[in-house]
Input
Amino acid sequence: MIDFLVAERLTLFTGKIGQRLTALACVIHALLMIPLEVVPFAVTLPGSALILFGLAVTGRDGFFMLLGHGATIATFYLSYNWLLGS
Output
């Protein structure tokens, strides 16, 4: 169903370094999901980033990898504001 969206593009971001950065981001997302359960529906954003990373790694798609890292930045920003307040 989603196969037509995933293609091998922007392979610069799916190389060895990109995959290691993605693995680190996935671990951080998993750890952030625990305290974010306090805020209703807050785990949607890190969960979405994990889905994007999964699609990117499976299809070697750098575009989805960039979308996942964008969701990671948004997750960090919103998590900081929601959990620590500003």
About this structure: The first helix runs from residue 16 to 36. The chain has three helices and no strands. The chain has one domain: 13-84. The chain has a mean pLDDT of 89.
